[in-house]
């Protein structure tokens, strides 16, 4: 039996030397070491040996089994490594080649300034409101004291939506300003309140360097008891001072908007020339900034607020124009035309 064992070992090792691939190796392993393999079969006979032979043969067969297993494993490992190396050569990956740089985006200047405006008004106790961009004629006009067929409707050229009607509130339009959110906010929260409404608005206008069909406004609304325009002056001077980081003065001029009475236009002192007069302020020392006024009592009533008990003011400024001022952009259309070369500068 000893000779048989030695022969199996010799045959197995000789056969191993001739093996060229992993499949042949596996077959050979089954042939010698498998459940019905040559070595296994032979070992089944150990139990019939004499007590003197049993330990010797047992030990020898174990050594041979371990040796063969080791030899098979080593060759298997060699084949695996060769296979991997071959694959690596096929899909060669040069770790020294520089990677593809993915361009990093950044926040659009309009959003940057909007966030800053929100932060400052937030600090002064104003909540941020939102409203629909597709709005009913009622909220965009009638609720704001601009009746149908009133000439004041011509102040804001309007996009009307074809075949769209709100059954209670008339035709649908793309809102021409953020003012409709005044009535919506009063209806929802009543008085007192303090809100700003940043948002996108639309006008059916020919575009030029300072006019676009789509732009951004910020509405402000404060309703409380004993409110006057001096509060508005104080709030706006503080807001602009915080926004520009240096002292800013504001002044009122008379203005007309149907939803405020009295109505006014607010200018702020030109920061470029310190009120001396320059090209930016058209040599006046002041920059025209926004429309404002005391909320008309018809608007308070439309919002369900009692004008005998409460009053307040509202304002609306062009956020897009503020961004242009801030960064010295001389054509409004550059901001939204999607040209990366331009927008990357901010
Ligand atoms: C209004 O839209 C009023 N709702 C503002 C208001 C609110 C007055 C509350 C009183 C009380 P106006 O049409 O002037 O007003 O527009 C306000 C600002 O929007 C302008 O000062 C300007 O900065 C900006 N704006 C108007 N039209 C355009 C346009 N076509 N492109 C870019 N900005 C514009």
Explained architecture:
The protein contains 11 helices and 10 strands. The longest helix is centred in the first third of the chain and has 38 residues, at 53-90. A hairpin with a 5-residue loop joins strand 7 and strand 8. The protein has helices at residues 2-18, 22-33, 38-43, 53-90, 109-123, 137-140, 180-189, 229-244, 297-302, 319-327, 340-343; strands spanning 127-128, 134-136, 160-166, 170-174, 193-202, 214-224, 250-254, 260-269, 286-295, 311-318. Helix 1 packs parallel to helix 4, helix 2 runs antiparallel to helix 4 (53-90) and helix 5 packs across helix 10 (319-327). With 346 residues, it is of the alpha+beta class. The strands form 2 sheets. A 7-stranded mixed beta sheet has the order 1-5-6-10-9-8-7, with helices on both faces. It has a 3-stranded antiparallel beta sheet with strand order 2-4-3. Adenosine-5'-[phenylalaninyl-phosphate] is lined by residues 156, 177, 179, 203, 205, 211-212, 215, 217, 219, 257, 260, 290-293, 314-318, 320-321, 332.
Which radius of gyration do the C-alpha atoms yield? 42 Å
Number of helices: 11
* Dominant shape: elongated
Q: Give the strand order of the largest sheet, numbering strands 1, 2, ... along the chain.
A: 1-5-6-10-9-8-7
What small molecules does this complex bind?
Answer: adenosine-5'-[phenylalaninyl-phosphate]
Q: What are the secondary-structure elements, in order, as H or E?
A: HHHHHEEHEEHEEHEEEHEHH
Largest sheet: 7 strands, mixed
> How much beta, percentage-wise?
15-25%
- The class by helix and strand makeup works out as alpha+beta
* CA-CA gap between termini: 89 Å
Name the helicity range: 25-40%
């Amino acid at each position: 039996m000893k000779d048989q064992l030695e022969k199996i070992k010799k045959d197995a090792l000789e056969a191993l030397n001739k093996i060229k691939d992993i499949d042949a190796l596996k077959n050979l392993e089954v042939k010698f070491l498998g459940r019905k393999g040559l070595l296994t079969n032979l070992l089944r006979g150990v139990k019939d040996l004499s007590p003197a032979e049993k330990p010797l043969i047992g030990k020898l067969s174990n050594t041979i089994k371990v040796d063969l297993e080791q030899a098979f494993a080593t060759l298997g490992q060699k084949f695996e490594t060769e296979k991997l190396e071959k694959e690596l050569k096929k899909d060669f990956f040069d770790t020294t080649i520089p990677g593809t740089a993915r361009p990093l985006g950044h926040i659009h200047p309009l959003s940057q300034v909007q966030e800053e405006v929100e932060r400052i008004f937030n600090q002064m106790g104003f909540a941020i409101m939102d409203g629909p961009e597709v709005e009913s004629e009622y909220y965009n006009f009638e609720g704001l004291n601009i009746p149908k067929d009133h000439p004041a409707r011509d102040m804001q050229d309007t996009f009307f939506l074809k075949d769209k009607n709100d059954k209670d509130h008339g035709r649908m339009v793309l809102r021409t300003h953020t003012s409709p959110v005044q009535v919506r906010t009063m209806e929802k929260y009543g008085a007192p309140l303090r809100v700003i409404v940043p948002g996108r608005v639309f006008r059916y206008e020919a575009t030029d360097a300072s006019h676009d069909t789509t732009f951004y406004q910020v509405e402000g609304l404060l309703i409380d008891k004993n409110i006057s325009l001096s509060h508005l002056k104080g709030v706006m001077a503080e807001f602009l001072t915080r926004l520009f980081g240096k002292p800013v003065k504001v002044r009122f001029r008379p203005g007309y908007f149907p939803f405020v009475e009295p109505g006014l236009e607010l200018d702020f002192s030109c920061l470029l020339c310190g009120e001396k007069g320059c090209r930016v302020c058209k040599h006046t020392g002041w920059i025209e900034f926004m429309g404002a006024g005391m909320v008309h009592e018809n608007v308070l009533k439309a919002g369900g607020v009692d004008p005998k008990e409460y009053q307040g003011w509202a304002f609306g400024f062009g956020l897009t124009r503020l961004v242009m001022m801030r960064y010295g952009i001389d054509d409004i259309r550059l901001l939204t035309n999607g040209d990366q070369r331009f927008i990357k500068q901010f």
